[in-house]
Design brief:
Order of helices and strands: HEEHEEEEHEHEHEEEEHHEEEHHHHH
Shape: globular
Radius of gyration: 21 Å
Strand order of the largest sheet: 5-4-10-11-12-9-13
Number of strands: 15
Distance between the termini: 38 Å
CATH architecture of one domain: 2-Layer Sandwich
Structural class: alpha+beta
CATH topology of one domain: D-Amino Acid Oxidase, Chain A, domain 2
């Protein structure tokens, strides 16, 4: 998100310095899954074509022995190489005039001292944000701990479909996933609510022993493995003085999946506009707080409601939910009108078509 913000500011003629603690700008990006909606990627405005790994048109949801298959005739999302995408973001930011400094790390006290040098400090430094710590931003109250691995030689099945596995007895308050990278390369992963204090790797080791998962992997080899932490709710404040937070540092993610690129990028654009107005017109930075919540607050609220629905459901209740969705034609409806980022759009269409009442 920091690079997208830097690109927008630099393009407006504002001097921008980006500090990255790692030696390589894309280092660590492979920890996150790369499923992003096509609509969302197009809206961000970064050239993502070089980073595309696979095209997705649907998903199969699993709960016990029950399944829901939601599939479109069109490409709904891409699996992207996050490293290549970050490199493109950096290239475009530099082309517009931003200065990027790698292998540069600051302590909280060091960040505070930057206030003497810069008009605005932005924390785009992930879920465990040092900037947030430095300026005593309110904590994020809910996280999910994830673990994922990539396999070669796997039995991928349908190469344009993601599989999602719901099992609250194993993956407390989240789910598991299987993402095809191609004909024989597969990503498997899961998340566990941090409140349960479970080791995500230990849960993952149990997940891959499930019969349907073990069958996919019987002739495969592990390519890489990664653990990460994703915020599932926003901080109560994202602006304090002349410091603001964006992306995972602010908790601007979808609680349903933990995905943060689309919302975080949108908020980065709002931050760029707010910073520009602050520097050029003296409009308070607090405008950013109001603007991003006005644009994305409802969607984030609905994502949280959907997350609460599946995360609190027993296997029997999930079976009933799947049955109801099937009975009202939900598979076909979601395949035609589903929106990964904006559940409010689906809600309006459901009301319009009379599938839910007042």
């Amino acid at each position: 998100m920091g690079l997208i913000l830097a690109k927008a500011l630099a393009a407006s003629g504002i001097e921008v310095d980006v500090y990255e603690s790692k030696l390589n700008i894309s280092e660590g990006s492979e920890k996150a899954s790369g499923i992003i909606s096509k609509i969302g990627l197009d809206r961000i405005g970064i050239d993502y074509k070089r980073s595309i790994v696979n095209e997705l048109s649907g998903a199969i949801l699993h709960s016990g022995s029950r399944k829901l298959k939601i599939k479109s005739n069109d490409t709904k999302a891409y699996v992207i190489d996050r490293g290549k995408y970050v490199e493109e973001c950096a290239s475009e930011a530099k082309r517009d005039g931003a200065k990027i400094h790698t292998n540069t790390r600051f302590s909280p006290n060091g960040i505070i001292k930057l206030r003497d040098k810069y008009d605005v400090i932005v924390g785009a430094d992930g879920a465990v944000s040092t900037v947030a710590k430095a300026f005593a931003f309110p904590p994020i109250g809910s996280y999910v701990l994830t673990y994922k691995a990539e396999y070669s030689g796997a039995d991928v099945g349908e190469t344009d479909v993601v599989d999602l596995f719901f099992d609250n007895a194993l993956m407390h308050n989240f789910f598991g996933w299987s993402v095809p990278y191609g004909h024989d390369i597969l990503e498997l992963g899961l998340g566990v609510d941090s409140a349960y204090r479970k080791n995500s790797k230990a849960v993952f080791d149990r997940f891959v022993k499930k019969p349907e998962i073990a069958e996919m992997l019987k002739s495969s080899n592990v390519i890489s493995e990664h653990a990460s932490m994703i915020p599932l709710e926003a901080r109560q404040k994202t602006v304090i003085g002349n410091a603001l937070l964006v992306g995972d540092a602010a908790g601007q993610t979808k609680a349903t999946t933990g995905g943060g690129i689309v919302f975080g990028s949108g908020c980065a654009s709002i931050a760029a506009d707010s910073i520009t107005r602050y520097l050029n017109q003296g409009i308070p930075l607090s405008r950013y707080e109001h603007a991003w919540r006005k644009k994305y607050g409802l969607e984030m609220f609905l994502h949280k409601k959907i997350h609460n629905l599946y995360s609190s459901a027993s296997p029997a209740r999930m079976d009933r939910i799947f049955s109801v969705v099937k009975s009202i034609g939900g598979e076909k409806f979601l395949g035609s009108y589903g929106d990964m980022d904006r559940p409010s759009i689906m809600l309006k269409r459901l009301i319009f078509r009379g599938l839910i009442g007042d």
